[in-house]
Amino acid sequence: MNLLLLHATMLLWALSPSMQNYCDKSSETSKLNLSVTYELPTFTADFPIQNMVTLDGIIYVGAVNRIYALAPNLTKLSEYHTGPLLAHQACGLTQTTTGGASGVDNHNIALVVENIYDKGLYSCGSADNGVCRRHVLDDGNSLKAIDEDVYCFADKVQPGQGHPIDADVVVSPSGSQVLNVESNVITFFVGNSEIPKAGNISGSIMRLHTISQRKMKTSQNGFTFFSSLSHMDLIPSLQGNYYLRYVYSFHSGPFTYFLTVQQVNKDTQAYHTRIVRMCSSDLVIRRYVEMPLECISTNKRRRRATEEVKVFNILQAAHVTKVGNDAELQRQLKAEEDEDVLFAAFAQGQPGSPEPTPNSAVCVMSLKHINNMFKMYMQRCNTIDPYHFTGSERKSCYNMTSSDDCDPHEGIHEGKEGMYRLQVTQFVQRLEFWHKDLKNTLVTSITVVPVNGRTVAYLGTADGRHIQVLFSRFTSPHVNIGLDSSPVSASVVLPDTPHSEGAVLMATGSKITKIPLIGPGCGQLTTCTSCLLSSKVTQCGWCDGRCTRRPQCPSTSSWSQDNCTPVITKVFPSSGPIRGSTAVTICGRNFGFDKTENFKTSMVNVEVAGAQCKLARQDNVNRWTEMQCSPSFSGNFTPSGHLVKVTSGHAVAKLEGFKFVDPVINNIFPTFGPKSGNTMLTIRGAFLDTGNKQVVTVGKASCKIQSLSFSMLICKTPPHTHAVPSEQPVKLTVDSVERQAPVPFTYNEDPVISSIQPLRSFVSGGCTVSAQGSYLQSGLQPQMVLRTAQDTAVFHVSCVYGENRTSIQCTTPSLAKLPLQPPVVTKVAFVLDGYLTDQKDLIYVEDPLFQDPKLTSKDNKSIVELKGDRMDREAMKCQVLTVSNHSCESLTVVGNTLECTVPTQLQAATAKELQVEWRQADSIRHLGKVTLAQEQDYTGLIVGCVCVSLLLLFLASLLMWRRNKHIDDLSEVWYDGRGHIQHLDRLANARSVSPTNEMVSHESVDYRTTLLEDQGVDRPETCRAAPPMYRANGELLSPRLGTLGGGLGLGMEGDLVSPLLMAPVHIDPSCLHPDLLTEVQHVVIAREQLLLHVNQIIGRGQ
């Protein structure tokens, strides 16, 4: 039980720090009210929307079977039908009737505007066999509707007729990225995706180039390649078998870039993201290089090899913008205002698949940094041939000095023209932003816009939500609203309006929603901090405990964008030692907050329990919500209360939560243990759990803490390598304050087990095993560990010490439930305070089979006999047989008979029925009952005999008295035979024929009275008796009693005057009447012939 309690205490102590000593990381600054909704402008199309672009304020929307032109307020200006088509053919005819065969839907693959020759729009559909249509929007004379001037942009191809040439086949039904770049000429860069086993939407049988660049013919009726080197294709063996998806394309500086998701190599099903770079000025694919990109997340911003790294490998969407005048973005990226920055939304991919999981992160990197990485890896020759284009994986180097400006004469000075097609073998990794806010979220679109000097990211998700968040390591989204149930499209449009008044257009399914760049409102922001952090963008402020814009705040209330009142929610630890180095952590919100992402230390002053608390440096912690400080002591410091006070600016927050205490050690237990250590040392005292860090040492070695509370600390002693016995001081150090125990801890020799008895146990267990050895007193909590063969079962049994701690007593466990056949050899070892002794053999044998017990007697002792089979003499020493819960006084085995001597205390017990039991490890088996024979008790007989003897003695005395009295009465009588013979006859008649009967008159006449009446006056004086005495009622009394009564002063009425037996008196025979003597002479016995029995009663009397 003690071990269970100890383990429970240790578990609670282990869990409690993790449950209490931390600040809530889900800071209130990030809490949004997601139930708030807003009314926003929308446009709903007839079919799902796939692409959007804008030109001169007009929004052009590419949808399935439709092209729309919308005004800035989302009013439809015109539309053009691109399908359904009658058949799969270049620029096929649109089906205009509802009858007949069903048409083919025309998905919008690409929507591109150009503003060089005249303003035009290229719409490329999946059912047009890769050919695009050109919409003339403005020919210089007037603006035209989207459906007013449209033609098939393929030479010699009329609607539904003719076959396009190679250069006119632009897009792939699997998806394409088309980008027109103005350099020396307008170049169209095209990347066509390759998706294995994907359905062919258009049914096109033409083979498309994987990546290419082309220009528009001067006749404006089609495209043409610059040369045969203006395109590259997957090698034939990979076509249809290699995953390659073009996700995003953009132009920056002298380069054109594509972002792809593709297989890591031809032999694996792992996928990652790559960035492809080409020179925009090259008319052929002359300088081509691609490099893997990864977005990673770590628990700390500074990565270490031992930390878990989360990799987000599947790109979902991207956007390129200028750094602008956002100081935070400039600081984070170390970039200048006019540099381009890539914002890329990644997701963690499913194992062995390019499909994403709903777990996203956004990585931000400057293009300058990316180009530097290209240059470094190329110069280090960390490059190979791109196998998917070349069929080779050989290492390939390009060591020419590159100016990174796509100089058309690059390489000429080195004697050859600069040309390379390379794949970088190293990854470019960037740390993520906002991952904690994007858990369980799949980001599908991203657009980044500077608003009022701050960079804001506008995200769309797969569940149709829109998120706005400031660029910062410490901010969280300030907008998170639902737009629709359909995923947000990766195509996002920013209308050409001032950003402070602008909006972002997001498509979800068939709907377009217009969302203000400053946010739809302030209602989702529930705290002052979150309200003011985004106030520069959202134009929100704090008013009456809620976030509003100024017009919504009552004129009688205060509307502020400047500061928030600090709040303390938690302080830990709750106490610390006086003059210690305890670091106090304060949780709350609005600490040092002044509307920036920086914590203003100068604004904050902290005081704990009357002591000034110096703020510590904290990296990667949001100190608006969590501060750490160390109390500073000066002079004779005196603690003052429990108050924690934080002053932030002019506002003050207070909370009762910390006090200074004086930890003390009262005692330790045990005070000794084996030199191998592992003794559970208990330290008792007060304030032992104060502070942040507790360290216990025994001597100079650390005692590992197992559990900790206010008044008790348990630690495991370290080993001692020096001579023993050895006394070592026990010390507790709490945040640099040291306390020493009043007594030392003594190391003793390690225990040694020399033997165990008995050497056998029954399979059912319950056997008491006694372990003998030396230095057993070194431990305090003995245990027995029993193992079966191959450790198929291991048992831990708590034990106790024998008398004087010279042995260890343990009870064997049961093996009855294990699939083992006796005899079973087990190994037992003993653990004393963590020290494990050598193993001993203990053999388990079969349980005996008993018959009913019988009781016999031997040498004046009661013996319980049990006959049976499998009587193992050694195992019988286990003391498993009990009689009425008492162990046998002695236990012997004679043949197949077990003899148990009944304990002496049961012999004298009042209960004579004894229960014979077989004690097993898990149960008690009742063998039967025996009845103890009754011992002879002579007490009653003796008492009875004594009482009878006393009664007989009393009766004998009474009889003797009456007989004596009768004789006395006769001795007093003289008889005158002359006239009174009849009295003798009466006397004779009164005698009973039985010699044992008392002489009583048949007429109930007292003979004494009769005789006395006949006494004469002239009798001799010597023979004359005393005068007769009578009661008051006339009853004659004995003269002796009369005299006695008179002598006692009782008189004639005394209670003692009664006819009792007379005492013996002398009778003179000469005084007797001669006739009387003659009458009784035959019954009178001479004195010398009289036998007197003084100790035996003969006859009876009454």
Automatic annotation (TrEMBL):
Signal peptide coordinates: 1-20
Gene3D superfamilies: Immunoglobulins, ligand-binding face of the semaphorins, domain 2, YVTN repeat-like/Quinoprotein amine dehydrogenase
Any one cellular-component term (Gene Ontology): plasma membrane
Record-level GO BP terms: axon guidance; regulation of cell migration
Organism field: Poecilia formosa
A GO term for molecular function: semaphorin receptor activity
Entries under Pfam families matching the protein: PSI, Sema, TIG
Subcellular location(s) per record: Membrane
Keyword terms: Disulfide bond, Glycoprotein, Membrane, Repeat, Signal, Transmembrane, Transmembrane helix
Entry's family note: Belongs to the plexin family.
Protein name: MET proto-oncogene, receptor tyrosine kinase
Main location: membrane
Keyword Disulfide bond: yes
Chain segments annotated as transmembrane: 938-961
Membrane topology, from the record: Single-pass membrane protein
Every Sema domain range: 24-517
Biological classification of the source: Eukaryota, Metazoa, Chordata, Craniata, Vertebrata
Taxonomy, superkingdom: Eukaryota
